[in-house]
Amino acid sequence: VENAGGKINLSTVNQGISIAGSSGEISAETVNGPIVLSDMRASSVEAGTINGNLAYEGTVANDGRYRLTSHNGGITVAIPESSNATFAVRTYNGGFNSNLPLKAEGDVNDVRRGRRVVFTLGTGNAEFELESFSGGIRLRKPGTVVPTSSRKDKQADKDKDKQ
Hints:
Helix content: under 10%
Largest sheet: 13 strands, mixed
Low-confidence stretches: 147-163
Shape: globular
Number of strands: 13
Strand content: over 45%
Oligomer: single chain
Structural class: mainly beta
Mean pLDDT: 87
């Protein structure tokens, strides 16, 4: 989906989801595949995947709510450093890192132990909930994100290199 606005509700079972240049209330769900949300201006995002990476890049509404979850994949969020957001972060078998100027409430190492740790950027108006069971969580400034691709895409690249 590209350059859409309003309520967007997408779901799939064995494919990825890509939304670009869109705004409004976004809901995206897949079982086997990545979710890539780029150049977003959404006020609300609920995105989840069982087997896949999840990436969000865009602006943050001051009163926005963003919930990104992956059971078996990493989560990357790229937002402007001037954003105002609170991040509730949890991962059980993955790491956490950020190049944004965050203030932590609690022990940052608790994120890796499956405990919820809260970080604040700016005034913390918007709310992010980021959770991955078996993947890392990265918060980034725009332009510092490595594109997210699925395992299937990576295997195809390896197979192509062998030819």
